[in-house]
Amino acid sequence: MRKWLMLTLLLSVLVVLAACSGKDTTETTGQVDNTGASEDTSSGNEINITGINFEFDQAEYTVKAGEEVKITYQNEEGMHGIAIDGLDVDIKGDGEATFTPTEPGEYTIYCNIPCGAGHDDMKSTLIVT
What is the CATH number of domain 38-128? Predict the structure, then answer.
C-alpha cells in the first residue's frame, strides 16, 4: 500500500511540475526583442502591443496628438490586459481600442489584470507628440 501511495505522490508531483514549467512549446517565426530598442511596431497611429509574462514587447510607443489611434493588444504568454489613464483605454485580454489623444505628453500603459508577482512592474510608455 505504501508503495502505491509513493508512486501516486511522485506522479502527481511530476504532473504539477510539467504543467508549471512555463516552457512554451509553440513555434514562432521570429524572435521578440523585449529590450524596447527594437523597431517600433506601430504604423502611423496604429499600435500593436504584445503582453508577455510581466512585460510588454516595447518600452515605448509613439503616436501623434489630434489623430485617431487604434491599439490592438494580444497576449503571448499569461493573461494580461492594458489600460492607459487619461486616454480612456481599458482592454482586458486580447482586444482593440480606438481613441484620439488631444494633449501631447507621456502616458503610462499598464497591465489591468492582476497577473502575479511581476504585475506592478508591467508598464510601458505611450508618447503623444
Answer: 2.60.40.420
Domain boundaries defined on the chain: 38-128
For residues 126 and 61, is the Cβ–Cβ distance under 8 A?
A: yes
Q: Which amino acid is at 74?
A: Q
How would you write the pLDDT of the chain (129 residues) with one tens digit per residue?
Answer: 777 766 676 666 555 444 444 434 333 333 333 334 344 444 568 999 999 888 999 999 999 999 999 999 999 888 899 999 999 899 999 999 999 999 999 999 999 988 888 788 899 999 999
pTM, two decimal places: 0.64
